[in-house]
Amino acid sequence: MVNRAILCVDDEAIILMAMKQELKHHFGSRFLYETALSAEEALQIIQELGDEGISVIIVISDWLMPGMKGDEFLVLVHQQFPHIRTIMVTGQADEAAIERAVQEAKISACLRKPWKSRELMSAIENILDERTIA
Fold first, then answer.
1. CATH class for domain 4-129?
2. Cα dist. 116→71, 102, 111, 113, 126 in Å?
3. Where are the domains of the chain?
4. In the predicted model, what is the mean pLDDT of residues 52-72?
5. Is the pTM of this model over 0.90?
6. Which of 5, 48, 86, 114 shows the greatest Cβ crowding within 10 Å of its Cβ?
7. If we measure between CA atoms, which residue out of 129, 7, 121 comes closest to residue 58?
8. What Rg value do the Cα atoms of the chain yield, rounded?
9. Over the chain, what is the mean pLDDT?
10. What is the three-class DSSP state of 133?
């Protein structure tokens, strides 16, 4: 059974579907791939998966989402689940939001939308290499 997950968070379902497909294509069955349409849903999924013995190892989040922006969400993730590594993907975040995410959420990477698949996979591979969990 796969006990490690990558969680993608974006308020646009089509973006989530595309990202999930790219991840599955690149990493195959090495991970469970989960999606959330909001920060609140993502936090719930992290908790539920943890209760099932599945560890979310990477969260990839959009910045501009209703309710809670990505930098705020990733700061919460870092505070509540410091073992989870994070990547922010954005088309609209300003430098202050990116800097906040780097400083307070300790994001591993910030990619601009539309992201290049190669860049996203490279950022994830770098995290996996650092964690030696691949």
1. alpha beta
2. 21, 20, 8, 8, 16
3. 4-129
4. 96
5. yes
6. 86
7. 7
8. 13
9. 95
10. coil
Measured between alpha carbons, how far is 58 from 114 in angstroms, rounded to an integer? 20
Strand partners for 34: 7
Do residues 37 and 16 make contact, with C-beta atoms less than 8 angstroms apart? yes
Token pair recorded at residue 4: 């490690």
Q: Distance (Å, rounded) from C-alpha 118 to C-alpha 129?
A: 16
Rounded to an integer, what distance in angstroms lies between the CA atom of residue 112 and that of residue 119? 10
The answer for residues whose C-beta is within 8 angstroms of residue 51's C-beta and 6 or more apart is none
Distance of CA 95 to the CA centre of its chain: 19
Greatest distance between any 2 Cα atoms in the chain: 41
Reported confidence tier of residue 133, pLDDT bands at 50, 70, 90:
very low
Per-residue pLDDT reduced to its tens digit, 78-97: 999 999 999 999 998 889 99
CA–CA distance, 56 with 6 (Å, rounded to integer): 6
Q: How far is CA 19 from CA 24, 35, 53, in A?
A: 9, 9, 24
Q: Where are the alpha helices (DSSP H) in the chain?
A: 13-27, 39-51, 70-80, 95-104, 117-131
